[in-house]
Amino acid sequence: MAASRWRITRLALVPLLTGVLIAGLTGTTTAAASGNAPLNASAARNLDDINQDIRSAQYVVNRFWATHWSEFFSGWYSPPRVLGGYDGARSNAPRCQGSPLPDDNALYCWPPYDFIAWDVDLMRMGYRQGDAWVYLIIAHEWGHAVQARIPRRLLSRRVELQADCLAGATLFGAAEDGILFFETGDTQEIAAALRQHADDTPWTDVSDHGSASQRLSAFNRGARRGVGGCFT
Ligand SMILES: [Zn+2]
């Protein structure tokens, strides 16, 4: 994926998603190919790349919510604090509500803390398969921050699946706004991330986040129906 201000590169993988998403992908890929996202498939995926993608994802997700908040919710939008990357294997990892931030995971720490953070190893592991991973994680955790800002009656009992839905609404909504460009393989990477890591990482733990297919269908619902589709 590429934000309008950032140059990112992508490789093509195997299509996995449904017709609707692929149709959306085709449209935005065309837009990207027409000048906003120069392709450089051989570029090395180094630390600079991942840090740039992380900054880009924060920019895109925050801007989406700042732009659209009042279409869905009352009150003013305020972004969560971004604590950023931490090393969960260290004994002095930062804390949320008194507990050290979890190893190989990402989280939103609910108010009054109100911050987003991720283990750098979790980001790097997923990033090896593509940059869409960091967009997915940040959009999902930001979705929890949205949940913390809206009336409780709007919260789904499945808060994790609702956060996936909001992630889909955010990323595809940002693409519609022209601030994010899906490149070849991005939607496949997201599908693969939700499937392949299902057993590998706490972030995709079935017991709290839902099965891979539930997560993918929640993400797709947001992608197709937008923010409103996450509150039915
Ligand atoms: Zn979550």
Q: Quick gist of this model?
A:
The protein is mainly alpha-helical and 232 residues long. The chain contains 8 helices and 7 strands; from the N terminus they run βααβββββαααβααα.
Core attributes:
Uncharacterised_pept_Zn_put; Neutral zinc metallopeptidase; 50% helix; 232 residues; globular; two-stranded antiparallel ribbon; 10% strand; binds zinc ion; signal; mainly alpha
Overview of this structure, please?
This protein is mainly alpha-helical and 232 residues long. The protein has one domain. The protein contains eight helices and seven strands; from the N terminus they run E-H-H-E-E-E-E-E-H-H-H-E-H-H-H. It has helices at 19-36, 47-72, 120-127, 132-147, 159-177, 186-196, 206-209, 212-225, and strands spanning 2-3, 81-86, 95-96, 99-100, 106-109, 115-119, 180-181. The chain has a three-stranded mixed beta sheet. Strands 1-7 form a two-stranded antiparallel sheet. A two-stranded antiparallel ribbon has the order 3-4. Strand 5 (106-109) and strand 6 form a beta hairpin. The chain is globular and about 40 Å long. Residues 140, 144, 160, 163 line the site of zinc ion. It comes from Streptosporangium amethystogenes subsp. fukuiense. Residues 1-31 form the signal peptide. Keywords: Signal.
Number of discrete helical segments: 8
Low-pLDDT stretches: 5-45
- Name every ligand kind in the structure: zinc ion
Backbone structural class: mainly alpha
Query: What Rg is obtained from the alpha carbons, in whole angstroms?
Result: 16 Å
Task: Give the domain tally.
Answer: 1
As a percent range, the share of helical residues equals 40-55%
Report the portion of residues in β strands: 5-15%
Please provide the ordered H/E string of secondary-structure elements.
Answer: EHHEEEEEHHHEHHH
Mean of residue pLDDT values = 80
Strand order of the largest sheet: 2-6-5
| Total beta-strand segments | 7
Biggest sheet features: 3 strands, mixed
Q: Which of globular, elongated, flat, extended, rod-shaped describes the shape?
A: globular
Terminal Cα separation, in Å?
29 Å
Keywords: Signal
Protein name: Neutral zinc metallopeptidase
Organism: Streptosporangium amethystogenes subsp. fukuiense
